[in-house]
Amino acid sequence: MTIPAAPTAPTPTPDSLTGERLEAAASIPADVIAIGAILLTISTAAVVPFWFGADPILLPVVILTVAWTPALTCFIADRITRSRAAPEAVAGFRSQAGLTTGRPWTGSLAALAVLLSVAAVSTGIGALAGWQPLNIGADALAVLTLLPLAAVLMLVQVTGEEIAWRGYLHTRLTGLGTGTAAGVIAVFWVIWHAPLMLTYLHLGEMSERAVIVTLMNLGLASLTLTALRVLSSSVIPAIIAHTVLNTVFVYIASNLVVAQTSWSGTAFWLTAATGWACWAIAALGLAIAQQRRAHRQPVGQRSF
């Protein structure tokens, strides 16, 4: 007797893959698209005055003022779409944003380990290869003693962003799949920062190549932060990671290595590529860890 061959799934064609991507994009919730548009408008409007002569010394104040608008915008959107009473709305939003779920403390330790490893490895490779020579500043130790205070202040600032990006909006996008949600958030995050980066370029505080690399770094870092959020089922680790990104990484660039402006083109791009590789490996490693953990759990207990 001849046993009929088991049916096999058709091989995806380029057209079908494109169609699937378009279908995924089209399924992004309308309120998420609206929130993204509102936040882009806010981030653009905040820096427009600096293109027309506003004193650049005020820019840090503007950045601090705008920092919590993502969380506020998401909360208002949640109130509008769900029409809940105030106490219930706050509790529901905190859960949606990942503030009261998962394993925040073990996830935060993982965030510290991952971010500090990315910083150490990328800096170490650049220094050993000669692309990014070490140049420890005279006041590096004094600045280091102030880093904990800077981290606390930065923690307050970035929490307003993370409640939105890796918190509420990530939850709203989980129906698309973890990978797609992470990609959408990364795009949103890059676009959110683009007006500020272009303003730094306009003011002469950043070069064109620095803007390009920074936006690329943000996109890849976003994938790592989202992976931490998914692995822990909490937004707290993403908040910790974002804080490290804005303090430790800035400290290294400002106090421990030669300024980027003096690097050759080759050294600059090799250093950038090293950083991108480190971010990609970190995100991939966390994603693999999440998949392995998910496969060990009963379906009802999976956190993503």
UniProtKB/TrEMBL annotation:
Molecular function in Gene Ontology: endopeptidase activity
Segments traversing the membrane: 32-51, 57-77, 109-130, 136-156, 176-198, 210-228, 235-254, 266-289
InterPro entries: MmRce1-like (IPR042150), Rce1/LyrA-like_dom (IPR003675)
Keyword line: Membrane, Transmembrane, Transmembrane helix
GO biological process, one term: CAAX-box protein maturation
Annotated CAAX prenyl protease 2/Lysostaphin resistance protein A-like domain residues: 146-248
UniProt name for this protein: CAAX prenyl protease 2/Lysostaphin resistance protein A-like domain-containing protein
Source organism: Brevibacterium luteolum
Origin organism lineage: Bacteria, Bacillati, Actinomycetota, Actinomycetes, Micrococcales
